[in-house]
Amino acid sequence: MSRQGNVSLRGVAVAYGPIRVFDRLDLEVAQSEFLVLLGPSGCGKSTLLNAIAGLTEIDDGEIWIGDRNVTWLEPKDRGIAMVFQSYALYPRMDVRANLSFGLKVARTPRAEIERRVRTASEMLQIADLLDRRPAELSGGQRQRVAIGRALVRDAGVFLFDEPLSNLDAQLRSELRVEIKRLHQRLGATMIYVTHDQIEALTLADRIAVMKDRTFQQIGSPQEIYQRPVNRFVATFVGSPAMNFVQGHIAPTTDGPVFRSASLRLPLPTYPFANASIDERPVELGIRPEHVIVAPEAAHAHEVCVEMSEPMGSDLLAWTRLGDLPLSVRLPAETKLTPGDRLRILLPEHRFSLFDLASGARL
Fold first, then answer.
1. pTM, rounded to two decimals
2. What DSSP element (H or E) covers 132?
3. How many CB atoms lie within 10 A of CB 160?
4. For residue 175, which of 205, 120, 167 has the smallest C-alpha distance?
5. How buried is 282 (Cβ within 10 angstroms: 0-12 exposed, 13-18 middle, 19+ buried)?
């Protein structure tokens, strides 16, 4: 149903009057790739998507889709299909008419329109809703129709601008699965904007994490999660949040050591980016699920349980190591009461060390 196409942003700059939004951004999205633009509100992700779509003019650089320079082409001529946060359906038209309206305007032959509408409606499981109007549909059904309206186009690239943010948690989960299946069936290039890290981690082949209108890190979900390039990425991706402990690196004859008021942790195998290790203020990060409960371990640290949060599939324990707060992810059946003590290990291969001043990964 769709043509495949890679997307290339080359030195793209966008400004609103004197306000510079982007300054020479570069991005390569491969054919059939699912790329997620992830970041907080105001980071520029939707503006970037609109620039790719042709809804926002760029001030410098080029945008290529496939082998075509589309920088100054109208949106309808770029070979893209877009799904917005709002459903934007025609309320007086039934689902069939909403799906086919753009094709009729483009003077697509009737038989081809019927074929595309039938294929899209079957893919999205809305074939039995074709005679209903939007007011007769649930939120999830309306969003399926909005996706179907994009799907019927002969597009090389699909652009999604926070399409699930208006839905409740269960519907978001269901439609995430549908979008993932759609990508696998079509083999199309998809660029998806969201502020929801769960959507990003579950959908993406690669994630581009944005902050202050720049890319902080671009990589696979595993790379983003396991080796965040700076403290912002570490805090923005991952739930529950990563634990952070302030301290400093101390070179010793046995290798570098992390020291804080309550901890001394040797770092003999930590993969420092720079071979020269100097003494500097740092933050050590470790995710709650990477803390190991080890009652019999000789060199374990003892923590005191302050409270616990049942989370269905697991349990989050809020503990204190000396004066340091530390969250620990445990099996759901774990029984804890405030005041209980746990013995834990902090495995070095799970550490992330960040420069305290710059936030960059060491």
1. 0.90
2. none
3. 26
4. 167
5. buried
